[in-house]
Amino acid sequence: LFTVKENFTATTKKPTVSVSDTSVGGSLGIRGLSPILAFDKTAGGVPKILMDGGGLQFKTGTLDAEGDVDVVILNNGNVGIGVTGPATKLDVVGADNGDTMRVANTGTYGGTISFNQGTANTSIGYIGSLRAFEGNGSGDNGVGLFSRDRISFYTNSSTPDVTITSVGDIEILTNEASIRLRSSGSANWTS
């Protein structure tokens, strides 16, 4: 055990190298043109960062001025980008108008966001390129569902404003799709 400043007494299992300062907080500096922190695992090991139940922050600053939080991982596993208190498993907040998140891949057919059910990864839907989802060039871009009978769009209500059924009927403010397009309000048709 190589110890700097104080003995590491927080746990029964002792680290190989310890940097400990319980009065102001231990710090480890790596300085150079492009500093690297590398984990060189052996055999079937898995590198780990242990957060002691307190979460983890990636900041823009230095030891003198820590700066803003760019990325945070809370102790409940929520990840925030551009936000210090993420409310969901991934919370992304942009500072300006425009794109807040980009989904892409290096393949030919674009990217998708896939929605899965449970740990078995049962796919129930996606947003993005169907060509990327299926891995071929015949699909379209858009929104899709799998193993479900309809897709609905809502605005300020738990009742769907527009529903597309599994057979392609479009329901507007109604649940009666006995015809291809049905609306419960007035309609204005132009050609």
Structural notes for this entry:
The protein is elongated. It is an all-beta fold and 191 residues long. Strands 3-4-5-6 form a four-stranded mixed beta sheet, with no helix packed on it. A four-stranded mixed beta sheet has the order 10-11-12-13, with no helix packed on it. The model has no long low-confidence stretch (mean pLDDT 77). The chain is 3% helix and 29% strand. The chain contains one helix and 13 strands, in the order E-E-E-E-E-E-E-E-H-E-E-E-E-E.
Beta content comes to 25-35%
Which percent range fits the helix content? under 10%
Shape: elongated
Q: What is the mean pLDDT?
A: 77
Task: Describe the oligomeric state of these chains in a short phrase.
Answer: single chain
Low-confidence stretches: none
**Helix-strand topology string:** EEEEEEEEHEEEEE
Rounded radius of gyration (Å): 26 Å
N-end to C-end Cα span:
81 Å
Count of DSSP H/I helices: 1
The main pleated sheet reads as: 4 strands, mixed
The structural class is mainly beta
In the sheet with the most strands, the strands line up as 3-4-5-6
The count of DSSP E runs of length 2 or more, i.e. the number of strands, is 13
